[in-house]
Amino acid sequence: MDDTSGAPTREHPARRRVVPTPAELASWRSFLRAHAGITKQLETELEGEQQLSLAAYDVLVQLSEAPDHRLRMTELADAVLLSRSGVTRLVDRLERVGLVARAKVADDGRGVTARLTDTGYDRLRTAAHTHLRGVRAHFVERLDADDLAALERIMRRLVPQRS
Fold first, then answer.
1. Going by CATH, does the domain composed of 23-148 fall within 1.10.10.10?
2. What are the domain boundaries of the chain?
3. Residues near 52 by Cβ (< 8 Å), separated by ≥ 6?
4. Closest CA to 80 of 69, 91, 95, 92
5. How confident is the model over 48-97, as pLDDT tens digits?
6. What is the pTM of this model?
């Protein structure tokens, strides 16, 4: 509000409050703690029962859901939220144990795809039991249907829109 006339004024972007309020920071920190805690539990269970990291599991999932079970390495890096070098190292390890195979892109001399092998698909199916059991125990069962719907709606708003 304008102090003299009482009429609303447009706030200059540079004058907007930058520092979150204590309540806003508490929400942010709760989100971070929940994500970190659940991720750590899921990682521990996958590694303990399946000898598979959560990142490796995610690579297998992304490839299983892709057309022909293959993605360009750049697309895979974006899908699993790893750096290009990080996904390259991870695919190297998965390739060594036969879960993933790489191939050159026919019409692009520099392009490389990662493809889920039959062994990788079988390994994913086995690991999915551990992972989905953990998702249910550490996430789904702690919330009611209204909480889950609200959280999904909120998280959808926070995901950056791709152009």
1. yes
2. 23-148
3. 46, 123, 127
4. 91
5. 999 999 999 999 999 999 999 999 999 999 999 788 899 999 999 999 99
6. 0.83
